[in-house]
């Protein structure tokens, strides 16, 4: 397997313009180091050349290119649909168009179902205040803050009530998601993120909504113009990551990964492990967020996507379920490069 080479050297195309940062936030956001490089980064030309006449994709060829230099932002969305397994590389253009149309119809049917329960779904607005009491009774005082919509009758269906109770938490997290990006200055873009998370939560009552899902979903909203396409990419990512968000009274979803991280650090850097033990950090609880959302908040938006692309392309099933040793190794390389500015080969 080709090792990832992080493209931090001077030169290359500056890609920050694809995901502009709000001027007042520039000083507080990690500087983007990734740059596109001719002959290494998967370009639009190389991407289109990887398809046969009827649409079959040479996935092995694409993966090699991604591992060498990531994906150019101009095509990230369509490439990610294959990386996450939304489409089979062996399918044809016609087959994918049929599947895409079917999925869009299905998504908008689910959206209409949710809208019938909460009219704000699909309205371009979203809630940040509770819409119903925990016992299912209306909360009229929240109507102004919730875009003049309020539950008018008691909710007796347990599944509906469980869903409605979490809508405000989703809204609060949406407001905090990637708020340094100009993209989310638009309330309609925030509402699209809220819609997808709300619909996913409705369809998956066993796991519901957990903080951090917003960080996984946000790139899909930004990379894919059609909301339904973004939903299906998020759904494919969550198939692999959902156990990270499953928490009980006695265990955390990422507990296994934390244990593995502890063992790896103990092996490769015993002094660091002992230092953390001395600081009562031997359980590596500080890494929960890193593992749960795959380092989304540790790096700039573009650098985090590049890191994800290496995780994904290294996985045999093209999914986002990366092997934890690979994650730790590649993240160590990432941090080393941020310090030295060198390139790993």
From TrEMBL:
<dbReference type="Pfam" id="PF00566">
    <property type="entry name" value="RabGAP-TBC"/>
</dbReference>
<feature type="domain" description="Rab-GAP TBC">
    <location>
        <begin position="70"/>
        <end position="315"/>
    </location>
</feature>
<dbReference type="InterPro" id="IPR035969">
    <property type="entry name" value="Rab-GAP_TBC_sf"/>
</dbReference>
<protein>
    <submittedName>
        <fullName>Ypt/Rab-GAP domain of gyp1p superfamily protein</fullName>
    </submittedName>
</protein>
<dbReference type="InterPro" id="IPR000195">
    <property type="entry name" value="Rab-GAP-TBC_dom"/>
</dbReference>
